[in-house]
Amino acid sequence: MAQLLPARHLVLRAVAKATEAEVVQTDIDDTVPLPDLGMMQLYSFYQPGLVAGPYSINVSQKVVFNGEEKTLAVQGETATTAKQKFRVVLPQFSIPKEDFHSTYPAQGHADQPSIVPHLVFNDPHLPWETPVKSDPNDDDNIIPWLALFPFDCNREKDSELRLNDDQLKDVRTALKLDAEKKPSATFTISTTVRDYLALEDRIKSLNTKVRIPAFKGDDNFQSIKDDPTPVEVMFIKGDLFKLLFYNKSGTPDVGPFRYCSHVRNINTQGITGAGVSEKGLFSIVHSKRSGPFDIAQGAAPRSQAVHLVSLENIETLTDVKDDELVSLVSLYRWTYLCQPPLSVNFIDAMRDIGIQLKLSQNVGLDEAERAAVTVQMRDTPPKSYLRCSEKVLAAFTPLKDKPDPLQGVKTAMAQRLSDGFSLVKYRVQSGEETVGLSRGALLPVYPSEPLESWPYSSNNGQDYQIFDRTLRIMDISYSSAFQLGRIMATSDIGFVSALMRIRTRAYQSGVMASSFVAGTQALNLKTKAQLFASLPGTFETMKALSTTSSEVSIGVDLRTRWDHSRSDLGETPQASADPEHFAAGVEKAIAAEGSAAGTNENLPISDLFAATSDDWRIVHDWVLDRMYLHGIPTHYFISDPNLLPPESMRFFHIDKNWMDCFIDGALSCANHTALNDNDVIREVMKAQFNKYLSTPIPKDPKDPSKGTINTPQIPIYGLLLRSAVVQAFKDLIVEAPFPEKFDSQGRAPILVQKRLSPDILMILLDRLPDSNEIASIKFTQPPHQQRFCAADYLSEKEATYLFRKLYYADGKPPGDFLQQFGDEVNFQPAQAKSVYNWTSRCIDFEKLDDLLFKETEHPNDKFAAFHTREWKPEQRKLTSAIVGIQLNDTMKYLEILPPDANPKAPKPKRPYQIRTRPVDQKRIAARGTLTSARAKPAGTTTTAAALVSSGDMPPVITPPQKLTVLPPSMLLTSLASRPTKEPEIFPTTTTSGSGSGSTGAPHPTPTTTPSAGPALPIHPAATLAAPTPPRPTPRISSPCFILTVYPRETPTSKSLLPFVWTDVPYAGDLIFSLQRIRTEAVLLNEIIVTIPLGPSRLRKKHPPTAPTPSNPSGQMGVNSIEGPGLAPVGHGGVRARMLSNQRWAVALDAGNAHLTVRLVARSMKRKEPLRANRECSFLLMGVDTGWTMDETGRKEGENEAGQVKIQVTEIYGDARPRDQGTASEFVMLTKKKGWKE
What we know:
Blueprint: H1 9-18, E1 40-43, E2 53-65, E3 68-72, E4 81-88, E5 100-104, E6 110-111, E7 115-116, E8 118-121, E9 146-152, H2 165-174, E10 189-192, H3 193-197, H4 199-202, E11 210-211, H5 221-224, E12 230-237, H6 238-245, E13 261-267, E14 279-286, E15 302-310, E16 325-338, H7 346-360, H8 367-371, H9 375-378, H10 390-394, H11 407-418, E17 422-427, E18 433-438, E19 442-443, E20 466-468, E21 473-475, H12 477-490, H13 493-523, H14 528-533, H15 535-547, H16 566-569, H17 579-593, H18 614-627, E22 648-654, H19 656-667, H20 680-694, E23 717-722, H21 724-728, E24 733-735, E25 752-757, E26 760-765, E27 777-780, E28 788-789, E29 793-794, E30 799-801, E31 825-827, E32 836-837, E33 842-843, H22 845-852, H23 863-866, H24 880-887, E34 893-896, H25 921-927, H26 968-974, E35 989-990, E36 1003-1004, E37 1041-1047, E38 1059-1061, E39 1068-1076, E40 1083-1092, E41 1135-1138, E42 1144-1150, E43 1154-1161, E44 1168-1169, E45 1178-1183, E46 1204-1212, E47 1222-1232
Parallel strand pairs: 6-16, 11-16, 18-21, 38-47
Antiparallel strand pairs: 1-13, 2-3, 2-4, 5-8, 7-28, 8-14, 9-15, 10-12, 12-16, 13-14, 15-16, 17-18, 19-22, 20-21, 22-23, 23-26, 24-27, 25-26, 27-34, 29-30, 30-31, 32-33, 35-36, 37-39, 39-45, 40-43, 40-44, 40-46, 41-45, 42-43, 46-47
């Protein structure tokens, strides 16, 4: 299974290296060192600790006491040794798909005949997990249990693996297959392990003779002989089998295959899709056989079938006759095309891309490159930017000496196409279809800065449409970006939920700040500093009170200290009445949300450290991932397939304006608190993102003294590569290093490296090519996917080799040692010492060993030509690692050099910033009246007192002397933003007391919308109002819902009686329609539907009992339901979902004799007002009302006639106690026949 990686994993890995954050540990063995970048280590084998086979554990215990040793019994009373046998079971006839990494040549692709196919495994131990044969004289190699062969199955004569009609007929008969069963495209036949092991015995009576390896001698034969596992088997002709497996003595020998498998340890930095770890251990199995070399020049390529086979028991196939067939299990197979010698291949495809780049930049070509130029190459856009070709633009070029009245329109259209636009279908608001201009996030030109009149935000995206007055066409590029951002945001439930919670908390903070500032000015609230400053005057007044008689006035009426006239309060403070303080409160809340945990609000969130708010982390990561183009549909990158033709490379700039509109659309969700199209919270959130983007990443947020690294990286430039190379080399290495002596400050050289499709690769960078920050862009074959060659040049008459110079030393060899080759070595078919066998098309490893080591013991030997004399005599022998290096094709790469720095070229602004509305001076002034508020967890509120500044409060207003009091309605309005108790569901009434102004009539208590009224004078003789008696809680005794049941596919109406079909041939779906028939002012807690299952004898009769708090439904449960069941007992696979009322969730509980369906409220309070729920219908899926038989043919029980009794229980009130009653009733369900009608 593919590893799921963060969109920014390359950047996060670079930041983790530069900081003191802990890097994610992997399961790679630390005993295998990580090679340097661009280097690899080869191992001849990597055997696991336990190979396949039987094992036993012997346990004994000895005790030494006073110098005396005594063996104790460990089993029973006499045995002193316990023995436990076990077996390590590993794949034998099949290999899991996740173990395969890649193949070369890739499926369906073509290459030269000298190539030997190879297969890469993700498991470094796999080829050596099963022991085949050991050689006591060779400790440096282990024979694997896997071998790889290509077969030429499509030549005109002597086609390999292809069976004639008689042979195919006998094989079908022996394997008990249908007469029409045909071989696969790789000429394998599907069967089972059981039939394959019996093939040799069954076919003896037929004309065709088939041999298989002797598995009967294996100790696990009894466990596999009846194995029904599917396998694919192939049939090799006897003479070909002997060419591939027999030695010079005429006996099967698997020894040479020890040189065909090895392990590679590579540094995965720069590898596409490598994951988080930089370590990569891969096992490789390559063939010793090449493709056919007899394909004539100009002839069509020939298909080759490659099979991975097991070497187990191969040496038991002795005395194979030429006319016999040998059947082997194919563990893996694919096909590729073998071309004539010196034909085009993947390496040439990379060369052709380099030629295109040279042509697009007017760079001179050599003679060989000029000969390879095609029409498509000549049509490459200038500098290979992502736009239409020159051929398309030529259609708009003005003709000489011929005036064109539409030339102005053509010139404007050519300019639009040159800027990367495409024509798309566009539907206006009135419904008419027309054409529009559109382009995605990738531009062939540097994005320009928007005009001052360009909107900062929008609520519908239409503000971002641009009308081209010359073409009379609407440009919908940025409007589409806004809509895409909104759609992607609303489709991500985690993101939009977190965004709504952040908006809610920010809105509450803004309203509280603006309301408190208004209330402070009106109510004359004092800060702590002002309170202490007024204490001396307070003490003097209290002293005067204690020394003055009651008849003497002190000049102050203390009864007026809480008295404020209505005129002093001004207008009711709302969120929009004081926008500056509201915005300042929002800023404080968002700053707290977006801060790093354990720091103050001045340090924003960091990528590798915990965040203060989990919701902000979700929104933060989502927005940043989209800025890395993660999850954005590909057609928003490439609007027209012709912009990126096959075998091409295109460069692009990322449109910052398009991304700003996309982010604006995403953050516009959940903006129900925005007033008058002024979404302050959205603008503040953008400003907080800009604060993150402009703040250097700290090495340690807990210790700022340790310094910082770079600011967060955002991609602005990139390239697209569309080529068969991308598909063939899944781990293509891409490098874009910084220049030497350039301080990258923890920056990742490549920000994004991912596949958009099997043959399209996208690379994103944060720097431009002419900025002197890119040394080069280099594409290299991955070390574990480099191809292997039977010879550097191979034809019918010659095999040419260039052997590398090897160093056997612990020190680091010269940097170019892989490019050091010895003298050219040539062989012809008639030479006895030829390393290549033209008859079998196989490499002779014994002769290769002689060439490299055995013939080099003389003074003037060939060894010194391509090796060093530092090798010891015992080291001079062939190993699979040496074979892997010598047969490995030379590493090819494509390197793109950047242009010279252009001082006139536009420079991107750093740090990257999202366009947002400038902050006015009023908001800056309002910030001084608020303190930095700490972010509170979801569900908590911040008191207004916490937002009061200690220094910048308005002056104290002298209380008026008029004896008035603030009406309750005005208090509710002024303090509407303060935390209030949950509003009651039922309208309560109060009766005023006997004081003046009372009418004695009940009136509603104000809850959310107060009514205005005059100030009420306070009289010394006034009395307090009597307490309001609580309204009695209503109770439910009869059901409020009616249940109707009917099949899903049957049209029905509300008047239809409940029924099901009993002759339906499948498990169908039933609609349980719960419709409200009356309403009460109560809370609905739960609805329970109990459905009987199986025959009636399973359910005992019990008299019903009265409900209790622990059992609200009494004993009217399943045991008291009489009559037949709806479905059989143990009926599995039943599922349920709500139809339309998503306030409720469905839970199923299947018992022995009943099925209980519980409808539970989704809200955190686990209750819903009955009035808000008109229906609670649900769908029960997969209900077998026809009562089918089980696998043994026995019925689950009799499908009894009669009606099915279903119980519906409604529970009202809070969960504990359920104080509003319980209602229950039975619904009779009729059984019908006539489903077909």
